[in-house]
Amino acid sequence: MSVSTGAIRQSRASRGAALARLALRIGGRYLARSPRLLFASVERRGELRHDLALRSADEVAEELGSMKGVLMKLGQMASYIYEDMPATFRASMSRLQQKAPPMTPALAASVVVAELGASPDQVFAEWDPLPFAAASIGQVHRAITRDGRAVAVKVQYPGIARSITSDLRNVGLLRRIVGAAFPGLDTRSLVDELGDRLQEEVDYVREAESQELFARYYDGHPFIRVPHVVAELSTSRVLTSELVSGAGFDELLGWDQQERDLAAETIHRFVFRSLYRLHAFNGDPHPGNYLFHRGGRVTFLDFGLTKLFTEDDLAPLIDAVRFLVFDKDYEAFRAALERAGFLRAGAPVPTSVVVDRFGQFYGTVLQDAAMTITPAYASAIVRRFFDARGPLAPYSDVPRAYVIMQRINLGLYAVLGSLNATANWRRIAEEIWPFRNGPPSTPLGEAEAAWLSKKTQKVLKN
Fold first, then answer.
1. What is the reported pTM?
2. Domain range for residue 430?
3. pLDDT at site 5
4. Contact 218/226 with Cβ under 8 angstroms?
5. pLDDT at 40 over 50
6. Is 402 part of a structural domain of the chain?
7. Which parts of 82-159 fold into alpha helices (H)?
8. Which end of the chain is more exposed for a tag (fewer CB within 10 A), N or C?
9. 147, 174, 200: which is the final residue of a domain?
10. Is residue 346 part of a domain?
11. What percent of the chain has pLDDT over 90?
């Protein structure tokens, strides 16, 4: 049963059985085909493996897409952060970013009735019963409000909260199935973090508050846009916001390199300005959450996974950047990592190893020069993050306060790597770091500085 013909699978037993069937299909196929692989020629062996991976990937994508929740979210994330995944798996998993199997028009309408008190045709002047986007928690419909505003209406899948709970209880089996689909990927921390955060995402009231926080902060920004929420048409399971049209990520990849570089700069500025200035992180950076417009203008969507930080949370991170990049004080850098909880205090490893291990995550800002972020570079960052065999592995961890930050960093590198984006990332970062407040270093930086000046003047007047 899929959501297109009925409700989502909810019970632990049914969803566990689906996972088990998927594991057996994939495992059984590899076992059955292994004798042929053993005796095949080198060329034919490659063809067989490609066919095998593609068929398994399609099955995984179909199963994750129909089950929604934790399973699908993991598939989405793996599709864009894990460069070493076989290309066929990446292609199939990427379908989950925007093309998940939708629920029926009648089922979506029933949610609107339950939440807004009337059918979509009564609540809205116009309603498209077919969703234009479907994801892990809900699907999105176009509509026109009674006062003539074009809006996007996100409708949550019925029973998704219970489905997530069921997935979490199947966490051991979930890790095994993901391991079978994505050989070599250490999914333990990824699955655990998803479980905690995904339970927050089902609350659309919380998401609306987070989206409005970003929308108000970036009001009037020259190239960053966050749609405002229509509060009177939003509830815990229906979220209505301004409708924005634009190019998807796949279309952006067909634009010239200058446009891709501008888009990448905007994404980079959004991520780090939100962190260092707004003290908030939008933790779901997959490519399906961006809409692109020429000249570096980008619209950011989906704020269900937002983390707010305190000054105390950010202090050791800011210290780490300053000590590593500017002061070259490596002992102080190490101490900042220990204070944040990334490294166990007194770990029996040389500081040079600490700098080598953690310094790679600062690679884009170590040099004051233009740098191209390639897919290979992004992949190396991800491999380093998931490396459980290095000398620091027994003594390092990702503290709970920063789990979502590591997730978005991996996603950011993956997106910029896909764009082969080039910029002087150090100069851009210096504009944003609160201990530098550097001058504008690009035309986008100049436009942002003018916006900031107006924003400051407006605050002072009020």
1. 0.77
2. 307-461
3. 38
4. yes
5. no
6. yes
7. 87-94, 105-116, 120-123
8. C
9. 200
10. yes
11. 49
